[in-house]
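Hi R.,

Here's the chain you asked about this morning:
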Amino acid sequence: MNNPFAVILVAADFAIMSGGEPDGLEIQAEALKKLRGQAIRCGKNVRSLLKLSKSSSTQRESHELVACVESAIASVTDGLASTDGEVQLRVRPGATGLHVLVNATELEEVFVNLIRNGLESKPSDARVMVDIVPGEPEGVRIFVRDNGPGVDPADMDRLSESSFTDRLRKAGTGLGLSVAHRIIADFGGRIGYQSSDERPPAAEDSEFGGAEFYVRLPLEKTDE
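And the predicted structure, written out as tokens:
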């Protein structure tokens, strides 16, 4: 819930500060759109959380994967100050137009949590790369890499525990990754982690040598 609340707060601040500006009405109108959108998001999050807590399946529909990832990135970056970090998106050839059968709100929250974990891996100059890679047999993988220190090997087996967190922002509950595993499993996929010494360095990703999580999802099956 803190993610949409952060966007709501920033939008409200912009609306308040723009009162005397020449384009103040335009800024306020845009802020109101964001406020409304994030309020709707809060309601969806609450409904999804209630369903998850009851171990019941949520409604799944066909959604374009890249659009879901872009929405998650926007949800994070809309609440960021310029010094809080940077998020980049790489869409590999063949990834555009791929559809997955998911609950879009839940899938976006998975990526929001993974991205925020990456941004909170360093006290400053944190950078995150989201890389959408097709080519899996009937599936796709989405990598979330950061330039932080990575996960301590001693903590590897605890990543999916509900109470575990190694975030710099200790106010976090650690529930994000635990719930993310459950959501992705419900969609027929899985979340994995690779440490920097388990993957060969790529020249284009040399600056993202910290943690690397990946989400593997099956593609929506068609009758073709």
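Residues 168-174 have pLDDT under 50 and may be disordered.

Let me know if you need anything else.
M.
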